[in-house]
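Subject: sequence -> structure tokens, single chain

Hey, anyone have a minute? Need the predicted structure for the following. Not urgent.
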Amino acid sequence: MILTISGVTHDYGPGSLFESISTSVNRDDRIVLIGKNGSGKSTLLKIISGEIQPTEGSVFRKSGLQIGHQRQRRIEDQEETLFDHYAKDKSRLTRDSYEFYSYERRVRSVLSGLGFKEPDWERNLGSFSGGEITRIVLGKLLLFEYDLLLLDEPTNHLDLDSVDWLVSYLKGYKGAMIVVSHDRYLIRSIGNRFWEINSGRLWDFSGGFSVYSSERERMMKTTLRTRENLEKEIDRLSKVAERYRAWGEEKFIKQAINKERQVERLKTRLESVISPEDEESDLRLRLRSDDRTGYKVLELSRAAFSYDENSVLENISVIVHRGEKMALLGPNGSGKTTLLKIITGELQADKGTYLWGHNVRWSLLSQTTAELNDDSTVLEEAWKEVPQWPDYKIRSYLGRFGFELDEVFKGIIELSGGERTKLALAITILKHPNVLIMDEPTNNLDIWSIENLEKVLKEYGGALIIVSHDRDFLRNVCDRFVEIRRGRIVHLDSLEDYQGASNSEAETSSSYNKGRSSYEEIKRVRNRCRSLERRLDELRDDERYTERQIERLRKEMEIHSTCYERLVAVNNDLKTHEDHLLNILLEREELCKELESLESELEKMK
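Reply:
Had a minute. Here:
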């Protein structure tokens, strides 16, 4: 036993986050801490680390216990390079030890694992975004072995490959850990004990995620059944007592008093049976898409973008159709968020075009929720979107997102990360978009909110464009997967195709040189061929449709040859369609070349 928590209670404002928590941490514990947004998970980590003191109770730490706590730190020297920022911590290690001599190697491993490429290592810290700084802080923490590691949403701002690396790292970690995370892939992979903050109490489950899920369900049913039975018995005895008193005779009055005492004892017992929070209570909503879009929702053609001289996107072409739920994949820095900024008009592409389809009304849910005004309250921020609604209606609506009673008067600056995401989602839905663009929508949400959001999005009739690092979320919601690979769009058959791409890429050249082809490589090439064939079919359909439109417009020009204004309008429309047809032919030519090359490779593998 390395740490003991005894009777810990912590107040927040008028109420308390949690009460009378008593538990302990053992040397081999890999604890996953779960709870609804705002339940106090991050606060409990801070109490365990000693960063803050509880209102009541104590935390006893083993003498000399080393605790590593992931939290955002201010970068003092903005001019320092990333590698130097890590390298200066070498002085904390004992000289002539294995850890001392292997430190630079481990720095390179951690930086690569968290998605930082070698050119990034020489960048000044001041040039990194807030999300990148979060990864840098996490990396510094992982370079050292602690007796107890405290991680708070460590997968935020990581890509799929970095999440894989982190899971692998944590599986091999020698110390104990307490991890707050919504990522079901990570918690299934590492957890051997689960804590849940529910109704201000700490539930403690030993075992993996499946054991936790089944034991939790059993506990919920047992607790609810116990409360229901007690409430029924209290009601029955109260009625009996009333009836005895109504009869007025002395012997019945004595019986009434006896029954009333039983009622008081049962009420005391009922108070000790905490009513568990219902995980279905949040996000009770339906996402409407009232207006039907055209078949083509978005067409992006040969788009390119560079930051300074660093090319991020090259020749990006993709079409999104009505009702499609498309996942946009790629490692950090591949240009996913940049592409979203281009199609939403925040950035202008260096070349190429994008065109929203007929009757499209899109809305963006960003990963930073920076669009929220920190000076406003929850109620004020949402009410701006629907000023015509009466007070009771907007408050009722916000209650479906977990903002109940006086919580609507909380300042936005006071909200947890998950509560900010829920509010941003609530405001987005008020706009009734028929195309929804979501950049890391699961960041900071609790597991039950994510599962409820999945249900909402699966029932949504509009189109979705989603960037996310959450595998389960993407797998459960999306029906189309595209990857930005080396600045270009690659169409994938499934999410698993992306997961295998990074692993096979490094091994491809050596396996070819040795004249061997693995089953996985053959499968990857075949899947890519199928993706290309499917895209070529789409292009052929688009080509035939565009040719018919060009033919129609040419006939229209003959009909309106004497009407100058109409002729100009038709001619402009004709030019647009002719340019589009040219783009189709160029893309077909590139894809046909790639398909021919892959089919040739496939023959050599057999």
